[in-house]
Amino acid sequence: MTRHFDAAIIGAGQAGPALAARLTASGRSVAFAERHLFGGTCVNTGCTPTKALIASAKAARMIARASDYGLTLDAPARIDWAALMARKDRIVAASRDGVDRWLANMQGCTVYRGHAHLVGPHGISVGGEEIEADNIYLNVGCRAAAPALPGLAKVPYLTNSSILALEEIPEHLLIIGGSYVALEFAQMFRRFGAKVTIIEKSDRLVSREDPDTSHCIEDILRTEDILIKTGAACIGIDGVPGNITAHLNGTEKVSGSHLLLAVGRVPNTADLGLDVAGVMTDERGFIQVDDCLRTSVPHIWAMGDCNGKGAFTHTSYNDYEIIAANVLDRESRKLSDRITAYAIYIDPPMGRAGLTEAQAKATGRRIASGMRPMSRVSRAVEKGEEQGFMRITVDLDSSEILGAVIIGPGADEAIHSVLDMMAARAPWQTLQHVMHIHPTVSELLPTILGELKPVT
Ligand SMILES: Cc1cc2nc3c(=O)[nH]c(=O)nc-3n(C[C@H](O)[C@H](O)[C@H](O)COP(=O)(O)OP(=O)(O)OC[C@H]3O[C@@H](n4cnc5c(N)ncnc54)[C@H](O)[C@@H]3O)c2cc1C
Ligand SMILES: NC(=O)c1ccc[n+]([C@@H]2O[C@H](COP(=O)([O-])OP(=O)(O)OC[C@H]3O[C@@H](n4cnc5c(N)ncnc54)[C@H](O)[C@@H]3O)[C@@H](O)[C@H]2O)c1
C-alpha cells in the first residue's frame, strides 16, 4: 500500500535533517530516506574525519618543531596510527549517531533506511516500500570522481572515503589533483611520516585562486618536503599494490606505494529516477535549480552538492535555510544573495570571502587592494607561524568590500570579520574604523585598509 506524506526528503546530508526538523515542527508529516550513513559526506568521509586527523597532524608537526620553541624532547614522538584513527572514528561516530537519533526520535518523521528513487512526480520507492509526497526535497550529495585514466581500473586506488580506513601509513602517497582534498590529505600524511607527491594538471595548485595565493600554498607545502608536480596531467597509471606508477605528460613518471584520487566529485543523481519525474539535470548530472532551489518540477527541490551551486557543508546548510525561508516562512531568501566563503584546512589555513583579486579586476570596476605578509603580523610572529599573507580588495567608487584572502594562523576564523562586513553591505571604511583586539591576525585588517593601492 502506498503511504502518503506531506513531504519526503532523500539523503541525510547537511540540509535534509535540519529541513525535516522545520517541516515536522510546522505540523507536516515527513518521510526521510537515507541509504547509507547518516550525516552524509561531511560527517563520515569529509569535514569531520579530515579535521580530526588534521588536528593530530598539527600536534605531530608542533612536536617535530619543538626546538623552534625552546623545548628539548628526549625522544622523537611516535605516531600511534591505531590510536589516532580511533580518535577520529570516535568523533565521527558521535556525530553520525547524533544525526541518526535526531531523525529517529523526531515526531512526525518516518525514517526509511534504503536506496530511494523517484517512480513518478510524487512517487518514491525506498527499500521495497512505495510512498507518495506532496513535496520532495533531494539532498543526495556527491561522491569522488574516478576519471577514465588509462590503466586506472587495473591498479588499487584510494578515494577520500577509503583512505580514511587505511590500516597503516603509506610509505609514499601519490595524489592526483591539487585542490582541497589533495592538499589537506597531502600535508596530513606528510606530517604522519609518509613521503607525498602531488600531481596537478594545472600550472599551479588551487588554480581558482589568485596566482600569489597558489604560490604561497605551494611554498607552505614545500617547506615540509611535499613534492609538487604542476602542469602534470596524469595520462596513465600502472603497477601493482604497493608499487604504483603515474605517467605524466608522456615524458615523466613517478612511483609510490599508494595512489589517492582527488580530482573532484560527481553527483549521486544517475540512479535517482529523475527522468521519470521530469527533473532536469545538466550535462554533468547536477540537478538544475532556480534561485530558490526549485527544480524543473515545481514541487521538487534540490539542496546541497547535488545541485552544483556549492560544494561545502555551509553551502548545503545555507540551501536548507533558503528552502525553509521560501516554503515555511514566506521569506524570499535567494541563492544569489549568498557571498562565496570557504577555507582550505592546510596549516596555516586559507580563508576566503567574496571575489579573488583577479575576479574583482575582471568586473571592470576601479579596485584597490591592501595586503600584508604574515611575517609582519605580530600574532603570527609570536606563534612562530609566519608563512602566509592577507589581502582585502575594495571598489574605489562604491566603497564596497569585494573580497579577501587570509593565509595564516586562524585565517579560517579571521576571514569572518570581512565576510560579516560584506553581508552587512558596510563600506570598507567601517571595517577600517573598528577597534580590533591585540594581538590577533584580524587586527591588521583595518591597517591594510589604510594602505590600499590601486590594482590596474
Ligand atoms: C575529504 C573531504 C573533506 C571536506 N571538508 C570540508 C570542509 O572542511 N568544510 C566544508 O564546508 N566542506 C567540506 N567538504 C565538502 C562537504 O563534505 C560537502 O560539501 C557536504 O558534505 C555536502 O553535503 P550534502 O548535504 O550536499 O550531501 P552529503 O553530505 O553528501 O549527503 C548526501 C546523503 O544522501 C545519501 N543518498 C544519496 N543518494 C541516495 C538515495 N538515492 N537514497 C537515499 N539516500 C541517498 C547519501 O548516502 C548521503 O548520506 C569536504 C569533502 C570531502 C570529500
Ligand atoms: N576545506 C574544505 O571546505 C573542503 C575540503 C575538501 C573538499 N572540499 C570540497 O570537495 C570538493 C572536491 O574537492 P577536490 O579537491 O576533489 O576537487 P576540485 O574540483 O576542487 O579539484 C580537483 C583538482 O584536480 C585536478 N585534476 C583533475 N584531473 C586531473 C588529472 N587527470 N591529473 C591531474 N590533476 C587533475 C584539477 O585541476 C583540480 O585542481 C571541492 O569542490 C570542495 O568544495 C572542501
UniProtKB/TrEMBL annotation:
Cofactor remark: Binds 1 FAD per subunit.
Residue numbers binding FAD: K51
Positions that bind NAD(+): G177, G178, S179, Y180, V181, A182, L183, E184, E200, G264, D305
Keyword RNA-binding among UniProt keywords: no
Location of the Pyridine nucleotide-disulphide oxidoreductase dimerisation domain: 341-445
Keyword terms: FAD, Flavoprotein, NAD, Nucleotide-binding, Pyruvate
Cofactor(s) in the UniProt record: FAD
UniProt cross-references to Pfam families, sorted A to Z: Pyr_redox_2, Pyr_redox_dim
MF (Gene Ontology): flavin adenine dinucleotide binding; NAD(P)H dehydrogenase (quinone) activity
SUPFAM superfamilies from the UniProt entry: FAD/NAD(P)-binding domain, FAD/NAD-linked reductases, dimerisation (C-terminal) domain
Catalytic residues (UniProt): H438 (proton acceptor)
Disulfides per UniProt: C42-C47
Domain of life: Bacteria
Domain FAD/NAD(P)-binding stretches: 6-316
Family stated for the protein in its record: Belongs to the class-I pyridine nucleotide-disulfide oxidoreductase family.
Protein name: Pyruvate/2-oxoglutarate dehydrogenase complex dihydrolipoamide dehydrogenase (E3) component
